[in-house]
Amino acid sequence: MLNIDGVSYRYRDATTPSLQNVSLNIPPAGVYGLLGPNGAGKTTLISVLAGLLTVTDGLITLDGIPLAEVRSKNPRAFALVPQDYAFYPMLTVAENLRFFGGVLGLGGTELKSQSESAIAFARLEQVVGKRAEQLSGGLRRRLNLAIGLLGKPQLLLLDEPTVGVDPQSRHFLLDSIAALPAAGTTVIYTSHYMEEIEAICQKIAIVDQGQVLAEGTLSDILRSPEPLLEIGLEQQLPVGIAQRYSATHIGEQKYRLILPSTATLQNLLDELASAGCSVRNLSLGQHDLEQVFMRFTNRSLRD
Amino acid sequence: MSPRLLALWLKETIALTRDKHGLLALFIMPTIFILVMTMALRDAFTPGVTIDVSYSVVDLDQTPISKALVKRLNRVAAFKKIEGDNDLGSARNQLLQGKQSLVLVLPKEFGNRLLTPGGTDGKPAEPLSLLIDPALSPTLQLAFRNQVMAALGAVRADELTVKAGKLFGLPVAPGATLEKDWPDEIHSEAVRGNTNAKIPSSVQQNVPAWLIFAMFFVVIPVSSIFIIERQQGTLQRLRAMGVPFHLVLAGKLLPFFIVNQVQAALMVLVGMYLVPQFGSEALELPSSLPLLLNWWAVSSTVSLAAVSWALLIASIAKTSEQATIVGGVGNILMGAVGGIMVPKFIMPASMQKIAALSPMAWGLEGFHTVMLRHGSFADILPSLTQLLVFAVASLLAAIWLNQRALAAQS
User: So what's the ipTM on this one?
Assistant: First the structure.
């Protein structure tokens, strides 16, 4: 279990901290999603976990052992797959894997077998002899991931690993990542694509402005105490009602409202009747991650 | 041997071999420079060679003494003599038409008045005239004047000797006339260690000079790979893998050091075998093992200085373009003031003082000490020390800049 307890981080010269009292419990052998818009603090948290940034407040432990100690005992315990294509474009796929394996201290048959496993996992067999600069965007992402698998890390940090790839490659990457926990690897996956998080993460944290807004399983987070109501009216929704129920306009005289509880539905209908609004149709629905995020932040993930 | 360092060396070597432009700059450029500059500066390093500036003499005196002066000037002058029709008007026309640059006019009575100071016989001294093409460099004008003065002095001394001999009734040796052949008065010898040797040729000056220049051009491939690493987040990934920055730098030092040594071997071969094909002398390396080791010591420290400088530039530059401009212009400036492009001895004294600040000048001094003076290890030690201090300072500055950049991020 990876425990992040009260971690804060502020970049030099920044007016606000990038991480504010972040506390998370990340279970082993699963895919943990960090969801948030650009600038939410996801990459900062990943950089802290990768040892690239040192926190002044808070404590991070893996199975009760401080992170720095884990890293010094076993440098291969953590692997970072950055957003960038962090490899050598002039080297071939095989040469890149050999180099990064060598840097991790792998050699001989161990290096050979782990390189082969990584190539097979990322399905790079057809391009092992090709220079990285000649690969398509999707294949580069796969190589980036394959390098991260060298050394069989206990914790794999994936920072937006599908940015800029075609849908086919994205599906392949997501399927591959989802399969990693089967081998005992814990994956921390950052994205601002909610559909990716929904597809592969067992546990999620919603992050914005350096704070954790919600943490739990996907169903926990989607299960909201505040029911969602979609309603179609014959007239415009009066402004006062719209404000009280955090309404969003979703179509022609169609609105999505958040009810404080199911018991308040009758109150709403009474209010609409008093305002002279006739209801065409209504349905109670479940939030999706986008809506949950909007509920917490009043803004979209894509903002 | 650390497997991590080995992996870094191997990666750097493969990356370098795939950088065609970088390799071209490292090997082809100095070869061309050595060939072109050796040809261009061949005469500047050959004492007694005729300068491509022509002169003629209008001898209005036509005495044995004036003829002796003409003959003597012809022998010692480094300028090209043109046989004219001994007519002042036509000589002036030749000068105006640019067919010759200098005309020396010997006046009538020149021979008779050679040993008579002006005014002693009631007549003023009539000077020799020198007609000059106004486009001729003042340095060459002065050189010709000095040669005329020297020839004149020698002819006057001979005439005095003959007259004194007659005065004191001394026998005059057969053939001791004013028109006898004269041996070269000055024989030049370059001093090397405990022995003397002939003056170095332009190839011996140019090969080390352009080798140093080429070694410093590792800045192009070093920075190109380094900036890719930084821009693509590879350095960050390596840091996350626990690779310290100084190990990354060490991973670059050896491959580029080897490249520099290959450059050195290649440029020596160019000097020894290719340059003679173009009509110049072949490069001579010292033949004794201690001198060869000294040569290699200079080559090695120049390389360390060059690679460290390249790593510093790569740490400062944000883009490959910046590195090419800063590194390229920096190298050209170091070469220009350091006696690479223009030999130091041609520079005025003030520029020679500035040249002493260039690492390329330290390297060139080291090579010249070994190759031209056959100096000992103690003789090259000052150059080696300067270069090593420069290398260490550059590396420390690169590490400090990296730490500062990380601190700024965090």
Answer: 0.81
